[in-house]
Amino acid sequence: MTDASNTAQLTINGKSYDLPVLSPTAGPDVLDIRKLYAQAGVFTYDPGYTSTASCDSTITFIDGDEGVLLHRGYPIGQLAEKSHYLEVCYLLLYGELPTASALEDFEDRVTRHTMVHEQMHNFFRGFRRDAHPMATMVGVVGAMSAFYADSADVNDPWQREVASIRMIAKLPTIAAMAYKYSIGQPFVYPRNDLDYASNFLNMCFSVPAENYQVDPILSRAMDRIFTLHADHEQNASTSTVRLASSSGANPFACIAAGIACLWGPAHGGANQACLEMLKEIGTVDRIPEFIARAKDKDDPFRLMGFGHRVYKNFDPRATVMKQSADEVLDLLGIEDNPILQVAKELEKQALDDPYFAEKKLFPNVDFYSGIILEAMGFPTSMFTPIFALSRTVGWISQWKEQFSDPAHKIGRPRQLYRGETQRDYVDVENR
Ligand code: ACO
Predict the structure, then answer these.
(1) Which pathway does it operate in (predicted)?
(2) Which of 31, 217, 266, 414 is deepest in the core (most CB within 10 A)?
(3) How many CA atoms lie within 13 A of 284 on its CB side?
(4) What average pLDDT is seen over the chain?
């Protein structure tokens, strides 16, 4: 944000207060209410933060009405088509596209941190085999602070950098281990001769008993899924990471908090919930019944993969994801996939329905990602862990940005208290 160029006036009980208006480089102006309570003695009320900017950021910009998503100014469509995940990681973390040598150096640093401490294998073994991989990931990532205490001091920029690289490098290993553990197969160590996405596929799908060749088209699709989920400004999990970090908590604890928040079906858990919904619908003829349920005020059912807090137009990530779904299913020779047919018809019928048009509900990124992931061989329980590992770079970039923001302070919202006012304690025999 630039300095306040004009002010807005707020009048309360006949008294006026000047509020600075901050001008962003893109997006709506922002009223600076930081001094409001000190000057006027009132709080603002904004559950769900629908009108509140919680920080000053230069990483990601979304115009939800136009369906625009930019990382450091670059449109997501261009990045998904021309770039690749580790280059986007560099862009998010450091602000510019890397030169060839900077990219090589970055890829080398990430690749050489992919293994996890051998003792962590025992930690995994403490979980039940049927644990949801997200439960395992929340625990294991939080426990990284016990294994990597030499990069947990948030006041040391060098340790912050090491922790960042470690998490980008190790999250795929941890997600793959959570998967292997859940199906009773041996952990597969990372391979440094493979690119980031191929290495992840290899850790998930290879077994010691035979050779596994990563298909380059699947690897490209995997990389695209990572890229499309890399960052999304101040969403619930990112805000959770920022809030956790505002107390000075170590980086691994903060990312574990982000993973926990992402798990919910209204956020990252939507990809699993969406595929389960498509399977429950099952056949095209049942779509109207589910659309009717989604519109019924007395039914809590919602069309998963539809709607977004910020996008009131097409989610630009969904457009790329839909294309990828076609490519992957075509490659695997399953273009007649009944779930894809249900998805395409559901999208069509919902978009034609005035309820969804009026409420500006469009497919979001998760509407098609589950179809691709399932076609690749992932069980639904792995969809959200894959989202989590992709989003790690976004969380870390936003977490790092906080340390260079002079306005940064501990997060501490206020409240509209509507409980009892002070009253005297009554002894139990007199109640
Ligand atoms: N199906 C049916 N109706 C919906 C849906 C949906 N998927 N989403 C919103 N609505 C309706 C609500 O009932 C509400 O109607 P009302 O005004 O008559 O009460 C209106 O649209 C606004 O909905 P809110 O819940 O107030 O919107 P909010 O911005 O808080 O919620 C959210 C956004 C959580 C994403 C919501 O659209 C939803 O639950 N979608 C399904 C879950 C999903 O796909 N989540 C993934 C989000 S993307 C991501 O995290 C990667």
Answers:
(1) Carbohydrate metabolism; tricarboxylic acid cycle; isocitrate from oxaloacetate: step 1/2
(2) 31
(3) 10
(4) 94
Query: What CA–CA distances, in Å, run from 337 to 185, 329, 341, 342, 364?
Result: 28, 8, 6, 9, 20
Strand ordering across the sheet containing 68-71: 60-63, 68-71, 74-75
Is 347 a pocket residue for ligand 1 (Cβ < 6 Å)? no
**Which tens digit of pLDDT belongs to each residue from 274-301?**
999 999 999 999 999 999 999 999 999 9
For the Cβ of 267 lying below 6 angstroms from any atom of ligand 1, the answer is yes
* CB distance 69 to ligand 1 below 6 Å: no
Q: Does ligand 1 come within 6 angstroms of the Cβ of 304?
A: yes
| Residue 334 pLDDT exceeds 80 | no
Structure confidence by residue, pLDDT tens digits, 114-168: 999 999 999 999 999 999 999 999 999 999 999 999 999 999 999 999 999 999 9
- Paired with 333 in beta bridges are none
Cα–Cα distance for residue pair 62/369, rounded to 1 Å: 20
How far is the C-alpha of 61 from the C-alpha of 173, rounded, in Å? 30
Atom of ligand 1 nearest to the CA of 315: 48
Task: Please state the separation of Cα 252 from the chain's center in Å.
Answer: 16
pTM > 0.85: yes or no:
yes
Report the C-alpha gap between 312 and 226 in whole angstroms.
23
Q: Is pLDDT at 13 greater than 80 in this prediction?
A: yes
Distance between CA 83 and CA 400 in Å, rounded?
23
- For the chain, give percent helix, strand, coil, nearest 5: 55, 5, 40
302 Cα to the center of ligand 1, angstroms: 7
DSSP 136-186: HHHHHHHHHHHH-GGG--TT-HHHHHHHHHHHHHHHHHHHHHHHHHHTTPP
CB 245 within 8 A of CB 221: no
- In the reported structure, the alpha carbon of residue 396 is separated from the centroid of ligand 1 by a whole-number distance in angstroms of 27
State the distance from the centre of ligand 1 to the C-alpha of 211, rounded, in angstroms: 44
Across 289-319, b (16+ Cβ under 10 Å) vs e yields ebbeebbeeeeeebbbbbbbebbbebbbbbb
